[in-house]
Every structure is written in structure tokens, then in C-alpha cells.
Amino acid sequence: MTDLTDESLLKTLCNGEIKSLGILYERYKGILHNYFLRVTGDQEASNDLLMATFERIYKYRHSYESRKKVRPWIFQIASNLIKDHYKKSKRWVSINTSHYKEETMNTEVSMDRVARHKKLHKALHQLKPSQRNIISMYYLLEMSYQDISISENISVNNARIKICRSLKKLKEILKDSDL
Amino acid sequence: MKNEQFDNEIMDYLDGIPINSNNQKAFQQAGELKQLLSELHELPLGKVHPTTDAKVYEFIENLEITMNTESKSRLKLDPKILYFTIAASIALLFYVFMDNNGFEDQYRLLPSNPEKLGFIYDLNNEQLDSEDVEWLKAELKKETHPNIKVTIVDLLNNYPSKIDNDFLNALQKEPIPSVQMAFLDALENSVNTDFSNELVVFSQRKDLDNTVRLKVAHILSIQSKQ
Amino acid sequence: MKTLNPILVLIILLSIGNFSFGQKDLSIYSDIDAVFVKSYWGNINVVGIDASNQDIFDLEAVYTDTLKKSKNLRQLSDYVSFKVENRKLYIETREPKGFESIDLNLKMPADLFLEIKLEKGGNIFADNMKNGVEINILNGSVNLERIGKYALVNAANGEIVANFDTLDEGMPISLVTMNGGVNATLPDNSKRDLRLISRKNGFVLSDFDLLSDEKIINLNVRQYSKKPIINTARINGGGALLFLSTENGPISIKKNRS
Questions:
Q1: Which chain A positions have a beta carbon within 8 Å of C51's beta carbon?
Q2: Which domain covers residue B86, as residue numbers?
Q3: What is the fold of A1-95?
Q4: Which of B25, B116, C156, C236 could be a cystine partner for B177, CB 3.0 to 4.6 Å?
Q5: Above 0.85 for ipTM, yes or no?
Q6: How many domains does chain B have?
Q7: Per-residue model confidence as pLDDT tens digits over A150-164
Q8: What is the CA radius of gyration of chain B?
């Protein structure tokens, strides 16, 4: 069963094979968790959002259109959850860098590199949540412009422009912090 | 618009499309953003906390338990309740069957013409019952896209005994010549042959394309010989 | 050298032609996903502009009056209307008064979806539209070049030529005409389920190997068949639908090798 495609797994889930949800979880938990972590910067919120994603996948399994790919459908669910999260908690989260502990313990990774990562992470969290979200959809989830445009309810062209401007803003913040 | 063009050039570069080398500024900025993206890619990835794994698996397990309990509890029902439940289910199924059609419901949810067209074509692989065929004939009157209608007519050619007056009514209302021709081809191959009066009425329409008019005359001449 | 009198030039220009033209910049419509063009008589030419030049978005309309009365298109808006609804730009010519035709030359962003309805007659040419096209035409040919995603084309009297370069392999293609040939050119790795219908005077030319349970009459034989050719087949193992249908004419499926 583990060699089934995502699309076949969702089909079997619709037919009552609950185990398929577990296989989908194993396939997607890593990327989704990191997406939530990048955008929220909050370990606890990311865990909750990950849980909520799989609750929604189950709840809305019958609304999935069988002709489409499962991957962008799951990412749409995740990006909608991010939006809901920011609607509910209109606050900037504190920057949590605890997940760097593991990296710091690795002696092969230089302290300089860890410092760079922390700086980039800090800069990311000076962006607006929507900017962080669109950058993460682009580089981490590697969503197509089409899927990003649907998620953000903007045209494909505007999605490209928004990604570009968010990246430029991030670059600007990093430059300022160097001064 | 100019700024947009500039940003689009940068995005092209990031996507691996070479940009106009004359635009040095875009080239330089794109290079910087490419470097930034590679740094973002290098950011360490966090691991899912074991408690989240546990929570999700508990959720999945509960779903399985709920499903099993539901199926077991049906078996434990009092025979009288079981009888009424089955009767009610049959009544409900009958109601659903009369008022709803699985394919129809799925078709209505499709958001675009290509998806609808693909869905109709895929029905060639299904065993359609009478209700499905009636729904398709009704759809011929409602659907506005000519290529979807041609695909429906092509599908209905597999059910020649169902090519009847309803089908003719849809033809009478059809404005697009290529769709009219698809209808007429289906009528020509139909096992029901007594369409002469309706076809004569149809041929008197003033807006008919000459090819369509000739086709009607051809079918009428065949029918008159039979 | 004696310079020409501007009034004389204007009189000469007006007396030569029975046509005039107007132009409109459409770049103000930056937040749309689709363009719908509806016209009655006249040719429609559309060129998709790639993202690097997206500030080019304009329409040129050339008006021709066959009653030999020249008319200056001072106001394009008297002949062509524009409105946006649900992120779709509607460009519509007026209903013809007598016989008049309006040729439309449109340059638009290549990533917008394009829909055309030509109610009476004229030819349609579209190039480099990457987000799908849907076309409905009565009399005239349809020529599509470098099309992306998918196409649904319906014609009554005229051939359909469609050249695809970046298909969405999950989307169907349907090219249907009544009188005329149907020619589709696809990327050579395209996987498609084929439905071929040529009811008379047809043959089928294919660069692809067609896998079919039935014999396809006059396959790669340039000889018009008296019998209808109605087949299903697969190319490269099969996939989304490629529906090619004509009442009267041949069918050709070619490989795009570029």
C-alpha cells in the first residue's frame, strides 16, 4: 500500500481505508511542518497546524477532484490554515530558534553558519506574514505559480510580482541588519 | 507596468530563463536573490515533535474505531429496529435514486469546460443505466458549450435505442451547425426511424447551414425508402 | 522639393480606402485572468506577449465598409466595447449594421486565458497563448500556433490547424468542425487517448504510432475514404482526450519536434 500514488491513496481513503491517511501523513509531515515553522516561527502552532491539516484532509476528502494532483490540493489546505491562523491571532510571534539547537550540537557545522541562519531567520520574521507565506510557498513547497495564484486569489502575474517583491524586501532587511 | 516588467525579468532568471543581458540592473538583482534563495534552502529543517506524531496517529486510530463501531453496532440492532432501518434506507435510496444521479452531481461540481468534456468522455468506460442516459439527454438542452455537446452525442451513439423524441427536441433548439450535424448523424444510425415529421419541421428553419439542410434531406430520403 | 499640402494628403488617403482603424491601449486592465472576444464579421488576430514584455497589451481595430463609404473611426468605443467582469475582460464589436466588418488585432499577455466567439465570418489566428483557448466560429478557418495548456475549438465551415507546445497533459483537447480538415500538432512525448471522427472524404495522417483495437481506414494513405472513419486509439500509452472530428475532411496528427 505504501507504494500507491498520492492520488490512489486519497481514493482509497474516500472508500473508507483510513490507513491511507497515515501514509499520506508520513509523506507530507516533514515538508508541511517546516512550512508552518517558517511562516509562523512557532513550534507549538506548527504542530497544531500540522494536526489540523490532516483533520481537514479527512474532513474534505470527498471534495477533492480526482482529476487533479493531491500535492497542490494538500498545500492549498495548508496555506488556508495559515491564513486562518493569522486571522485568529493578529500578532507577531516571538522568534523561536530552538530548532537550531540540533544544528549547533553538530560540530561539523560552523558557528558562523549557524549565526547566518539565525540572522536570516530573524529577517524572515520581520517580513509581513503574507510575504513570508508566499516566499515559503515558492521556495519550500515549490508550488507552481498557478497554485500560488489560486491560494492567494490573485493572477499568476501578480503572484510572480509578489514573490519577487517579498524576496527583495527580505534582502533589504538583511542588508540593513548588516549596517 | 515598467516595474512589473523588471520584476518579471528577475523571476524569469530565478526560474532558469535567461534574461536580456542588456538589463544589468535586473541581472545583478536577480543574482542577489538567487543567492538569497540558496541560503533559504540551506536553512536547517525542523523535525516533527513525537507528540504531534502521536496525536495524529491517535486521531487516525479513533477514526478506525468509530468506523468499526458503526459497522458492528448495525449488527447488534434489535431485529425490529433493523427491519425499519433497512426499510427506511431503501426508501431513502429510492428517493436519492429518483432525485439524484451520481454522475450528474459530479458533473455539476466541475468548474471548467475542459474538465466537463473530459468527464463526459470518460463515461464511455462506465456502464450507464437508463437514468444516466436520460440525464445526458437533458444535459444536451442545458449545456452551452458545443464541443461538450458533441462529446455527449458521441457517447449517446453507444445507446441507439435511446435516440428518441427527447433527442429530437434538443436538436430543434440547437443553434450550432456542427452540433446539429452530430445530432443528425446519431439520428441516421438510430434504430428508431420515425422522425420524418420532426425533421421536416427542423429543415424549415431559416437559419440552417446548407450542409445541415442537405444532411436532413438525405436522412428523409432514406426514411422514405424504408 | 515642394512639400505636400496636408489637406491634399488627407483627401488622397480618404479617397483610396474604404477602411479606417483605431487603436486602444489595454494595459490598464492589469488585474484580469481571461480575455473574451466576440465579433461578427472580420478577422481576429491574437498574439500572446511573454511576461518580459507585459506592458504590451493593446487592440487595433480596422473597420471596412463594403458600401464604398469610408468612415473615420474617430471613436473606437462606438464600434468596440470593453468591460471587466469576474476578472475577465470582454471585448465585443457592435452588431453589424448592413455589411460591415471589423478586423481585430490584439496583443495580450500570453498567460491569460483566451476565448473567442466569431458569430458570422472571418478567420481566426492566435499565437503563443499559454493558458488555454476556447474558440467558436461559424464561417472561416482557425489557425493556432504555439498554444499551451489546452484548446476547445468549434467551427462550422473552415479548417482547424492547432499547434501545441506546452500542453497540460491532464486537460483534454477538442477540435470539431463540420466542413474542413482538422490538424493537430503535439509535443512528441504527448500521451493521449484519441477519438477520431471523419464522416466523409477523410483520411488520417499521423506521425505518432496509433494503438487501436480496430483498423483505421486510410491511415497514412492520402486517399479520400467514402466510408466514415470513426476510431478510438492511443498515442504513447494514452492519457487525456484528444478529440478530432470533422464531417467532411481529413485528420492529421503531427509531432512537434521543435
A1: 157, 160
A2: 77-103
A3: Rna Polymerase Sigma Factor; Chain: A (1.10.1740)
A4: C156
A5: yes
A6: 3
A7: 888 788 888 999 999
A8: 30
